[in-house]
Write a structure and sequence with these properties.
single chain; 95 residues; mainly alpha
Length: 95
């Protein structure tokens, strides 16, 4: 076809190399720091919230599940725990 133009070539996103995303130790330490901050947020809630099932689940996520997970999965575990802590913080206002 004389007037048909071909689509532009697909551009692949730049792959992250080990030097751009950090070393294993740097990523590990970063996740541990995030875990520690979430643990302190959870401890600050206190009060009647300690008896809530969500409180125990957040502790389980931050301790057992976090430790059993591979490094690549730990960020998702921390995000789930952060969500639960947000919910618990909002519940503690009403308790």
């Amino acid at each position: 076809m004389p007037h048909h133009s071909s689509p532009p070539p697909a551009v692949k996103p730049a792959e992250k190399t080990a030097s751009t995303r950090g070393s294993f130790r740097a990523r590990y330490d970063d996740l541990e720091a995030k875990r520690a901050s979430l643990m302190s947020r959870l401890e600050m809630i206190g009060g009647k919230t300690n008896k809530h099932p969500g409180y125990r689940r957040a502790l389980t996520l931050l301790n057992d599940t976090f430790r059993k997970s591979k490094l690549a999965q730990r960020l998702a575990v921390l995000q789930a725990a952060s969500f639960l802590i947000d919910v618990l913080e909002r519940l503690s206002i009403g308790l």
